[in-house]
Design brief:
This protein has 138 residues and is of the alpha+beta class. The chain has one domain (8-137): HIT-like (HIT family, subunit A), CATH 3.30.428.10. The protein is 30% helix and 18% strand. The protein has a five-stranded antiparallel beta sheet. It starts with 7 loop residues before the first helix and ends with a helix. The model has no long low-confidence stretch (mean pLDDT 96). The chain binds adenosine monophosphate (AMP). The site of adenosine monophosphate has 12 residues, from loops.
Length: 138
Amino acid sequence: MSYDPTNIFAKILKGELPCHKVYEDETALVMMDIFPQSRGHTLVIPRAASRNLLDADPAALAEVIPLVQRVAKAVQTATKADGLRLAQFNEAPAGQTVFHLHFHIIPAYEGIALGAHAAGRADDGELAQLAKDIAAAL
Ligand code: AMP
């Protein structure tokens, strides 16, 4: 399947739709997931256009993975999570719902089960505060 440039993350990358932005540079945009699986669920979205890992340019992957690590550390610092899950889905049967490559950084808290994928909408005030806290820890 080919890349559809009208997907929602492409629009967010172009600034056509709003997001709770944590960070951006020439490589990627980092934002809060608005349907988080846990408090602090953050998305790293490379600017390079690909549906997912399978059609991504290896050079683009090489550029973005150090940022994924940096953001993971900042999320851990800001949320005081006990662990972190890194997730990335390839095609709908695997759980992908937005067809522009992105990496999920999902904090895990001792004794709290992760929520369902892309389910409940989080409070915008809380997301804005988390974005600020994670940005400060970057
Ligand atoms: P995936 O299922 O891997 O394609 O993940 C897409 C993720 O994007 C899900 O976790 C959704 O909760 C999240 N999401 C969908 N729309 C938005 C949006 N407008 N802003 C932030 N996150 C979004």
